[in-house]
């Protein structure tokens, strides 16, 4: 494997129906056809200052915490957890508003100018869920413009930062006239069943006060090999802006490989920075940033990667 490409992968890296229903199906918004498991809803809601909202999410008062969870897009079905007896068989005796296992507040300029938008991410450890909301400054304070949720069981491995695996900020293309850095919001979500695992990665920016997608791809895929017993086929993809030499953009790198799960430690094919050991880089697709369209466009055909 090309050492520079592998190093970049390490540093940037890459359900049962009833559980996923608690996270996504409660909403009626139709999913974007290209987003896969990434569930994004665009519903404008007035917000308090993001710091105040985070303080409310930390509150020990259930009513205050419930109002804050609603403001970042959760329904009551998602915000309430059942309370069970300790007897056998266990019986449901009530419900409570869950306390987030982790809360993150991030600021970044996601649009064309230097205006800072806010991203709040929340971890629901018990239900293995991640929620995020994006807010923008408004005439009277702040306004939520979009929300995200995922059932992130496949990202919740020991020692792995679940929120960072699902919600990230990455540098955005810079034009010659830019005087301040801009960022992209990167969202990941995964799912699977019967031996198949797939993860989608979507990049977003803010344009005209709306969250818009600018790039999407399948970042990880794993399935049984077609012709080999005791074999898993792995595909991993990551977007590398540093490989685009001619103008703003980036290169989508694909690595593939087959391995035997019985002879490889589970951590080596479930942790992003380790699984690439089971694969080799096979393809590169160049993308250029189209400012007029405000999104990435493929540049030429997919080719073998340079050494």
Question: What features would you describe in this structure?
Answer:
The chain is an alpha+beta fold and 307 residues long. The protein has one domain (3-298). It is built from 7 helices and 16 strands. Helix 3 (50-57) crosses helix 4. The chain is flat and about 60 Å long.
Structural descriptors:
disordered N terminus; 43% strand; 7 helices; single chain; alpha+beta; 8-stranded antiparallel sheet; 16 strands; 6-stranded antiparallel sheet; 307 residues
The strand order across the widest sheet is: 9-10-11-12-13-14-15-16
Q: Strand tally, please?
A: 16
Query: Which range does the strand content fall in?
Result: 35-45%
Assign an overall shape.
flat
Cα distance spanning the termini: 8 Å
Mean pLDDT: 83
The poorly predicted ranges are 1-31
Sheet with the most strands, sense and barrel status: 8 strands, antiparallel
Could you tell me the radius of gyration in angstroms? 20 Å
Structural domain tally: 1
Report the structural category. Answer: alpha+beta
Separate helix tally = 7
Element-by-element helix/strand order = HHEEHHHEEEEEEHEEEEEEHEE
Write a compact overview of the structure shown.
This protein is α+β, with helices and mostly antiparallel strands. It has helices at 3-12, 17-25, 50-57, 62-71, 76-79, 162-166, 272-275; strands spanning 39-41, 45-47, 80-84, 92-97, 102-108, 117-124, 129-138, 141-151, 167-171, 183-193, 196-207, 210-224, 232-240, 249-259, 280-290, 295-298.
């Amino acid at each position: 494997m090309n050492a520079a490409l592998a190093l970049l992968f390490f540093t940037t890296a890459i359900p049962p129906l009833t559980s996923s229903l608690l996270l996504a199906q409660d909403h009626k918004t139709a999913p974007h056809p290209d987003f896969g498991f990434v569930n994004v809803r665009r519903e404008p809601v007035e917000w308090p200052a993001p710091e105040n909202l985070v303080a409310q999410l930390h509150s020990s008062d259930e009513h205050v915490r419930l109002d804050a969870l609603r403001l970042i897009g959760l329904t009551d079905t998602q915000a309430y957890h059942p309370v069970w007896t300790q007897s056998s068989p266990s019986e449901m005796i009530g419900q409570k508003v869950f306390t987030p296992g982790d809360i993150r507040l991030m600021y970044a300029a996601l649009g064309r100018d230097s205006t800072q938008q806010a991203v709040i991410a929340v971890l629901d450890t018990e239900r293995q869920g991640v929620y995020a909301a994006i807010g923008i400054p408004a005439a009277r304070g702040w306004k939520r413009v979009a929300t995200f949720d995922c059932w992130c069981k496949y990202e919740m491995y020991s020692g792995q930062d679940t929120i960072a695996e699902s919600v990230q900020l990455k540098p955005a293309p810079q034009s010659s006239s830019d005087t301040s850095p801009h960022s992209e919001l990167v969202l990941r979500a995964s799912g699977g069943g019967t031996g198949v695992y797939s993860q989608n990665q979507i990049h977003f920016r803010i344009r005209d006060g709306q969250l818009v997608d600018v790039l999407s791809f399948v970042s990880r895929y794993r399935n049984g090999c077609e012709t080999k017993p005791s074999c898993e086929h792995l595909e991993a993809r990551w977007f590398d802006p540093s490989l685009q030499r001619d103008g703003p953009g980036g290169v989508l790198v694909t690595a593939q490989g087959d391995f035997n799960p019985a002879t490889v430690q589970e951590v080596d094919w479930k942790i992003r920075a380790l699984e690439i050991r089971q694969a080799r880089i096979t393809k590169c697709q160049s993308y250029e940033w189209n400012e007029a369209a405000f999104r990435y466009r493929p540049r030429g055909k997919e080719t073998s990667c340079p050494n």
